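Homework-ish question, so no full write-ups if that breaks the rules, but can someone show me the predicted structure for this set?
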Amino acid sequence: MSSILQEIEMQIAGAKTAVLRQNIGIVREVYDGVAKIEGLADAMYNEMLDFGDGVMGLALNLEETEVGAVILGDYLRVREGQQVRTTGRLLSVPVGKALLGRVVDALGRPIDGKGPITAETTYPVERIAPGVIKRRSVNQPVQTGIMAIDAMIPIGRGQRELIIGDRATGKTTICIDTIINNARLNREAEERGERDYRPLYSIYVAIGQKQSNVARVITELEKAGAMPYTIVVVAAASDSAANQYLAPFAGCAMGEWFMDNGMDALIVYDDLSKHAVAYRQVSLVLKRPSGREAYPGDVFYLHSRLLERAARLNEKHGNGSLTALPIIETQAGDVTAYIPTNVISITDGQIYLETDLFYQGVRPAISVGISVSRVGSAAQIKAMKQVAGRVKLDLAQFRELAAFAQFGSELDARTQAQLERGKRIVELFKQPPYNPLPVEVQVAVLWAVQNNFMDDVPVEKIKDFQNKLTEFLTLRRSALLAQIRVEKAVTDALAAELKSALEQFKQTYR
Amino acid sequence: MKISKQARRSAKQLFKSCLRDGQLDDQNVRRAVQALLESKPRGYLAVLTHFRRLIKLEVQRRTALVETVVELKPAQAQRIRNSLEKLYGPGLRFVFTQRPELIGGVRVQVGSDVYDGTVRARLDALKAAFASHE
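A: Not a homework solution, just the prediction itself:
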């Protein structure tokens, strides 16, 4: 009976097209989430391997007699002697607007229990960054809503700005504020029907974070109504090192979809220090030689190829952009350590947060002296440039003179004035978390302080003055604020209106 | 056993010396093993272990394993030999086995390339397709 079957089978096989060729290997060793495979002569670097039973792997070590693959998924199901097939595909993740509002893992699978994601397309996780010709210089602002940043260290769309500081200094909070502010701007523009406002979508990538922290972040985003414009990619501390290694690249692929389709996106990598540690673990388990601090030799390339994919494209390529806010955690304020110096040299500026400032009450604890944005005022609207142009200088001079502050009355009038102005500006830049300010309010407040309207307000009451002024302007002078927002510049007429509004406010302020 | 870098290197050199025109020369291999066992230089066991592995991999690479349900007729076997030699060059070692659980068809494995036209393979693929869609 079986010979007849075989004859028919061979005749059918002869009539059809040739049988597909597969490439297989046998698992020789399995340990620590890594499998060593014999055979697989056709395996390519970063190719997806099929271990069977739904378990996939990534070929990362191509050696003479074997392939070292990292297992993505349940590595306890892989046994020695098992067959492995090549798939001929690169690792890809689903991308598109269907992912907005969802929480996914490093491979793009949903983990928020809201059902499967029907993505229109998939993008490869590893991709070469856009070349020089495709790019354009950065000149659109990312309004973070944090006055200290928008005034002195402005971030533009397409820029990479590093947020660096010790633990618990407010790094994640700055990024969440940015996401919340942009979600608010997106929604307001939608409601007003503004056609030429470009919405900024956000992607928050949590790498090696505690799951309780990630849950708290998601709750804050939901409370602020920011989730419909945000994708959250999670590779928590309990995930395998391979997933933590892949998560930023997956998030970047999702951001690149927005960039390639003429939209703007912002991606937050929280944080890249843990990403380097995960990559170190993967490399050491794959028995790759280690270098400084036991990091593999290509840890710089790990971050540079990730961050170079954030860019602004020119008109011919859709005018989209991807802004990256990587976060690095330093130990004891040491920015000269290996990974921090690597990432500082890659990004277009850094925002440095200090614990001393944090405990002095200056929150956000931004150290204005060392923080820099290499894009600078090209990413500010004209109004902000007009009012904030001198602020960084004023603060720098204030810090220089702060040592003399204790001599109070023995200084000349000009120095006194600088000190008083500096103290007020420092007070103004303090901002509570999850409370981003609209740019028109920032402009109005800074204009007020630059035009001497706050010189007679005691320093302890500056915050109160600012809050009441904001309330006054928002409720009773909303047309003025709207005009600043639309015109994006403080014209003489607007300046006159601001002056009269402030005079009126000061009369009623107690 | 732990095979040191030197042992690996020596075994590799030994292996290279057993190749003639890119093909493994059995006589050379036997002579190499014999010589090692007689002279017993330092670390010879490690060298032999790695050498054995390299030989095993090379033999696997140049072996064509043809699995069918029933024994192939000589004409069919010759046709398979010819087509494989055309693809992979001469000097292949052919092993013909019978595996009734394949139900029907032919499975050919040359090194790590597999051409699987068996009914068993199609059934397994169907099963996997259903499992992934659930």
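Now go work out the reasoning yourself. Hint: Chain B has two domains: 5-60, 62-132.
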